[in-house]
Amino acid sequence: MSPSRRLVVRLILSAFTLSLFGSGSAGAAEKKSGNSAVRPVPKKEDWWMKRHESFVGRAKKGHVDLLFLGDSITHDWEGRGKDVWKERFEPLRAANFGIGGDRTEHLLWRLTEGKELEGIEPKVAVLMIGTNNMGSNTAAEIADGIQAVVDALRKQRPHTKILLLAIFPRSPKPTDMVRDKINYVNEKIAKLGDGKTVRFLDIGGKFLDKDGNLAKEIMYDFLHLTPDGYKLWADAIQPSLNEALQR
């Protein structure tokens, strides 16, 4: 390959990498301007709003010590994860505030404009969000969106311990490009853990084989968990939950 052709290839690869992961050299204000992941917005679908309103109603009843926040992977604790939920979390006065399809901006709206926390002050909030932003935001933008959610939680409920989970792996093989993007986001949000209010926990390895592959027995579509996957999730976070709930 000629030197000029190699230069063109390098420029194309650099531009593609930047589109995926974002630039690390821009200032904070510049990076966040135009970032949809940090702007709270609701979804317009009736089913989504009804589910959100059900959370508001649940919060008004109080008595929530453990709160799960997230997207469809969290939502499905009510489906494929229901047996594990009933056994492991229901006795802990847990509530599931997950909505399928949510991105960081939707959860951010639910916590701020949607007032989903009014009436409760959980001892622990288990948070995982961001996988649905993979197609619409750079990795840096997604990390900023997750930080915005964490900041909203800390502002509204400063005494709630946050168990911030790394985004779970997806796609069958470790060489699939989305894995690199997820890893980049997780490296960024790991820095949000302060050892006090926020604990970062990466349990993604629990779902992979020794070569880093995903099996359908754990994630049936290489994204959403099977019942066995939910058991792995519960087992992986139980020690951290026990510690946080006892404080």
Question: How would you sum up this structure, described in words?
Answer:
The protein has 247 residues and is an alpha/beta fold. The protein has a single domain (34-246), classed as Rossmann fold (3-Layer(aba) Sandwich), CATH 3.40.50.1110. It has nine helices and five strands. The protein has helices at residues 3-21, 28-32, 46-61, 72-75, 82-88, 104-111, 139-156, 177-189, 227-246, and strands spanning 66-70, 94-98, 124-128, 161-165, 198-201. It has a five-stranded parallel β-sheet with strand order 2-1-3-4-5, with helices on both faces. The N and C termini lie far apart (62 Å). The relative contact order is 0.14. Residues 2-19 and 23-31 have low confidence and may be disordered.
Q: Give the overall form.
A: globular
Distance between the termini: 62 Å
**CATH architecture classification name:** 3-Layer(aba) Sandwich
Could you state the oligomeric state of the chains shown?
A: single chain
CATH class: Alpha Beta
Total of DSSP H or I helical runs spanning 4+ residues:
9
| Structural class by SSE content | alpha/beta
Number of domains: 1
CATH topology: Rossmann fold
CATH homologous superfamily identity: SGNH hydrolase
* Global Rg: 19 Å
Q: What profile does the largest beta sheet have?
A: 5 strands, parallel
